[in-house]
């Protein structure tokens, strides 16, 4: 099971979750545990099942098999007290197109006992969101900002963000991340943050999880991932096949088989020394995005 | 040609099971002709009707899919998409109207008007999606007036047939225009977002907007939200559901008064100018509007539900949102409330018709049955859909509810006056869809939030 060592009390958990659409298996025995207080950046290729996973976790879509739970309660039967703690920003920001921003905040706010209208209005002011224009007529960026405000205003401590930055300009993206960071300093909350923009995730997330082939490919602390070296090996195919990479974090062979990409913790020199003769290794500086993309291929 | 064939496949064969079921009607007609069961006028009428059912269904499905694929193509700006769709539409007309009509006409003893019948069926099929009022009006006039001999005599008149053919051709022409219109409107979304006006702040909005209209809009929204908040504070109910899904839940009394008043006036005017007999036609049209209202109000609940998976997700995650069991009651309440106005208005006009002697009790019963069939068919179909695992473009249950209600209403309309069995069968056929719908809704989980399964 993929859990984070040394931390207990999973707020979000998925065990053996399986989901298929027709013949296409999207999640194939997916298992994940997100402990209290963690901010997990969820990455995966397009169509890898990130949104499906988040919907199953939130009980918005039934899984074919397996269990999903939030704060120890089955996702399919969440109690009002757990729902009170959840803040969700869906992938599509166009919701309640027939209402304006004020009506949405008033309507949704009525369901929550701790919906903070003053906080919502402060964010509206800061992020320049029109509350009087019908939502259907707002730009995707304004809709996205309003969606984030709506999710944060109840002061949730279980937050699920499904690509909330897709329509935002860089300045607003930074403002949103800074708001999350400043809130996180004030109070503890648990976040699953799905996005393709690794830079945004890196600023805020304590952990990264990569979804590939329906399974959790990796889940690790951000600093651990950043410390990994990425080496590209070239050499005789049989020699590469016979090399022991057990000490490495991840090994990927290129489709043609003439290259092997390895993620490891050693320095470039140490790693080169550990290789048998006849294999050449190049270890160019790798950023977090390049490192994480190795699990997506 | 590959491109046209691909579009044709999407329009006709996306749901093979539905296409196979519809094709069975063609096979039935072919079997009856091959067996030589009859050769009288009514036999060929029956064959034309059997062929018309799948033709209408196939064209209705195609119209639905044209709206779907052209919306996407319009938003994406796919080049030459309209031309490919139109070519596919032309192939459909040849394959499902011209060829079967020629085949029927070529058979010994067959009638040339089979072509008119098939063209009319295709046109009504398209109208079922793009101009519902045409279909509902036609169906109800048929039900209310079908039992008079004069009605049938009208349809064998070649001038009437020519008129019907022209009407069908016009509807099909409108159907050919559909891809271009849908793509044009879809492309406007991208155009709208290509200027900066959608980024206007509230201050900028106030300088450009009609303040009076804005205030009216805000007041209306404010009162709806206030009512929903009052409900939510105690127990979320009809107003909260309606506001969240975006459909009108209250009774639009002003509209109701206008509609009922106009209906009563029409009946009175008809009586003054046309004497007694033709009044049944006016009454049929009024009943048609009542049926249209029942269908459209139920459709508005269905449309609101099926287009708001995102909103439903947010609503379901709120702490005060009701459990599934109560939500099912709220949906049933919304369906019933939506139909109440039509029933009330129709009842007032029917009572007036009886008092004036414009209609007989038998005609009243037939009209009431038609309205009940529409109510039950819509409610049953929606209840069955609410209990599905996912929402598809067209479900066999929907087709079943529509066919069962229509067949029940037809049997009731043409029943012999002295026989009881046809009436019993008609009642059973009309009441089965809501019974199945209720049973499904009680036994199965509610599909909330709705999960749409796209065709293709």
General description of the model:
- The complex is a heterodimer of chains A (297) and B (456).
- Chain A is of the alpha/beta class and 297 residues long.
- Chain A has 2 domains: 1-85 and 157-171 and 186-225, 3-Layer(aba) Sandwich (Rossmann fold), CATH 3.40.50.300; 228-296, Alpha-Beta Plaits, CATH 3.30.70.
- Chain A has 11 helices and 14 strands.
- Chain A has helices at residues 50-57, 80-83, 101-109, 117-126, 140-152, 170-186, 198-204, 222-226, 237-242, 268-274, 288-296; strands at residues 10-21, 24-35, 39-44, 65-70, 73-74, 86-89, 158-162, 190-194, 207-212, 215-221, 229-235, 250-253, 259-264, 279-282.
- In chain A, the strands form 3 sheets. Chain A has a 6-stranded mixed beta sheet, with helices on both faces. In chain A, strands 2-1-4-5 form a 4-stranded antiparallel beta sheet, with helices on one face. A 4-stranded antiparallel beta sheet of chain A has the order 12-13-11-14, sandwiched between helices.
- The longest helix of chain A is centred in the middle third of the chain and has 17 residues, at 170-186.
- With 456 residues, chain B is mainly alpha-helical.
- Helix content of chain B is 80%, strand content 0%.
- Chain B has 18 helices and no strands.
- Chain B has helices at 2-13, 16-35, 41-76, 81-106, 114-130, 132-145, 149-156, 158-192, 202-208, 211-234, 238-245, 253-274, 279-306, 309-317, 324-356, 361-386, 396-413, 421-443.
- The longest helix of chain B has 36 residues, at 41-76.
- Chain B is globular and about 75 Å long.
- Chains A and B meet through helix 2, helix 3 and helix 5 of A and helix 9, helix 10, helix 11 and helix 14 of B.
